[in-house]
Amino acid sequence: MLNDMQICDIAQKYGTPSYLFDLSELSSRVKRIKELLGEEVELCYAMKANPFLTFFLDEYVDKFEVCSFGEYEICKKYEICSSKIVYSGVYKQCDELMNTVKDDFDGDYTIESKKQFEELCNLIHETKRHARILLRLTSGNQFGMDEEEIIAILSRIDEMPYIEFAGIQFFSGTQKKNIEIVERELTELDAFCTKVKIETGKVITRIEYGAGLFVDYFGDEEADFDDLIKMREWLQKRQYHFVIELGRYIVATCGKYLTKIVDIKKNKGKRYCMIDGGIHQINYYGQMLGLRVPPVRQVSYERKQIGESEKWTVCGALCTVHDVVLREYEMQNPCEGDLLLFEMIGAYSVTEASFLFLSRELPNVLAIDEKGQVKVLRKQMSTAHINSGGETRKPVKKLLGVVDIYG
Ligand SMILES: Cc1ncc(COP(=O)(O)O)c(C=O)c1O
Questions:
Q1: What whole-number distance in Å separates Cα of residue 177 and Cα of residue 313?
Q2: Which among 10, 120, 310, 360 is least buried, having the fewest CB atoms inside 10 angstroms?
Q3: 103: domain range?
Q4: Domain-embedded: residue 399
């Protein structure tokens, strides 16, 4: 664990707000997850949870679930072997798929609709290549297909010798607080596989399952890893090749977010503490208007937090009343320049928050290795050019109608 001095040094050297990913926490957690799943079960990292950690996870996970061409390009940048990629996604563009084919992609494509199946078949046929597919079963939303659609595809799959059916994929949602949901879903998948065998003669050997395991941000649960152990017990009793897709569960714990107190005030008797970050960079699933307290601590440089503990409303840098990060949060004598260190922020904050609001800078993304060395994965970056369609340093005098102002 980083001590306060190290935290302050990092904040001083790199500035705030910054994400800081602890690579030794990441590697010990993912190793533990692999160990608990056992050798028979493969682990797939759903990289949407945090693409910055893809590179570091390559040595630990068996597969990467990518959901867009952009994520695929990130994998290419990090030289992830394509055989490890599960190219997923509810919307796959033909030209992007064509680019993967040109790259001699050797991973799995998921199929989420009849149209996706037909488009991939045409593409593969034209290019005389080979493709391995997973058929995604829906859980009752826009993702995947009904059982009947999957059965219909499987009934004609032998007419397409260049398409190899690898198995089924299923993901119904994240933060499953009750492990019984996981057990029920797996039981239903097992029953579906039996139905497929009866109706098509096809034996499903691989189940790619997004378990959506729960991460305890607000101290509601007792022991970590209990859910994983219970799920493993279920998996061990079945004869499938399981690939477990996890995002949040792998990366949440390694992430920290450093933000600085920039202003202190009392408005109508209420204490407010302003920070240079905000809700556009902090995303704890289940948070409600700052009412729940995630793992966060006040860090002061060379100053003791003396004085009585008082309740503060911690607000971010966005010009909206909704930018309340913490309500009634107990702090001792907070001062301008103090830091707030948010923990367990490794999943989804770095990608899912509304970064573009108010054209504020994107935070630093830093990683710290086992030796305490900090690597800069992304420097603070302006968003003003994104919100104005290009370069901002060149003044634009008049903007008449919709014109190509930089053309
Ligand atoms: C298909 C699929 N698998 C896995 C995941 C990862 O979910 P989680 O972060 O809850 O582990 C997602 C998340 O959206 C997903 O869409």
A1: 29
A2: 310
A3: 62-246
A4: no
